[in-house]
Design goal:
This protein has 269 residues and is α/β, with parallel strands linked by helices. The protein has a single domain (4-268), classed as 3-Layer(aba) Sandwich (Rossmann fold), CATH 3.40.50. It is 47% helix and 16% strand. It is built from 10 helices and 8 strands. The chain has an 8-stranded mixed beta sheet with strand order 3-4-2-5-1-6-7-8, sandwiched between helices. Helix 1 packs across helix 10 (247-268), helix 2 crosses helix 9 (230-238) and helix 5 (112-123) crosses helix 6 (143-151). The radius of gyration is 18 Å and the shape is globular. This is Chromosome partitioning ATPase. It comes from Ligilactobacillus hayakitensis DSM 18933 = JCM 14209. Residues 4-178 form the AAA domain.
């Protein structure tokens, strides 16, 4: 077992990348793949979502004894602060103090390459314990995020079918190539472009998907597509629900299961 390290990425907020990280990892876990999610955002949205998910089972008390920044400051292994959320699904939690991570890097490493490669040294020892490691990053260009990108093997670009989204995807891919691969020798690759479709503008969706296929190559656009769903927004409040007789839960997980299966397929290729 050697984990693939991935991140869903977009420099625009609110496009669904945290939901994708949570629900794809959840469905990979249901498929028998052992998954770790590292919350890399000081807003800790995926930490809150997963703790609510864990707390749905009254036998599971969801508590955080240590967060990511505390572990880094104390030179603890990320394995020491990992929380089991459910079968095959684990979390490295975060908290607001992670906003100090940039200063931590500047204080501890004079050399820029050491700063960029630091987080990879924390992630790599975990690879033999998981099939997938997801890093959920905030939608910003920053030194802290660069350390997460450098730790990744694959990036999945979330393409929201709205104006300027294609341009944003182009800028993102160019940034990764110039600032992470060319400058620091990272081997990170783009696994594909994952479309997040709007509910009401089917014609706009088609136009943008056609343009994406032309720009990036049809083979690089995921065949699986995610429609914006109210149930996903509800899960932010309730935790991930998976009721076998709830048609909305079934529909939601079916969509993300397809994405999970396509990730496995693309990695195999």
């Amino acid at each position: 077992m050697t984990a693939t390290v991935l991140s869903f990425l977009n420099f625009k907020g609110g496009v669904g990348k945290t939901s994708a990280t949570a629900l794809v990892s959840y469905n990979l876990a249901k498929m028998g793949k052992k998954c770790l999610v590292i919350d890399f955002d000081p807003q800790a949205n995926i930490t809150a979502l997963f703790l609510k998910t864990k707390s749905q089972n009254k036998d599971n008390v969801a508590t955080i004894e240590s967060s990511l920044m505390t572990a880094l400051n104390k030179k603890e292994s990320l394995d020491d602060i990992t929380i089991e959320i459910g079968e095959n699904l684990y979390l490295v939690p975060n908290a607001v103090d992670f906003s100090m991570y940039g200063r931590f890097l500047e204080r501890n490493f004079i050399d820029e390459e050491q700063r960029i490669s630091y987080f990879k040294t924390q992630v790599d020892p975990l690879r033999d314990k998981y099939d997938f490691i997801f890093i959920d990053v905030p939608p910003t260009i920053s030194l802290p995020n660069d350390t997460a990108f450098y730790a990744c093997d694959q990036i999945i670009v979330v393409l929201q079918t709205q104006e300027r989204s294609l341009q944003g995807a182009e800028v993102l891919i160019e940034y990764l190539q110039d600032s992470i691969v060319d400058q620091y020798g990272s081997t990170v690759q783009i696994l594909g472009i994952l479309p997040f479709l709007s509910k009401r503008s089917a014609s706009v969706d088609k136009e943008i998907l056609d343009a994406a296929a032309e720009e990036f190559g049809d083979e690089n656009v995921f065949k699986s597509q995610i429609m914006q769903m109210e149930r996903v927004k509800r899960m932010d409040m309730t935790g991930i629900t998976d009721h076998p007789h709830d048609s909305w839960d079934i529909r939601t997980h079916k969509a993300f299961h397809k994405v999970a299966a396509e990730i496995i397929e693309r990695l195999g290729e």
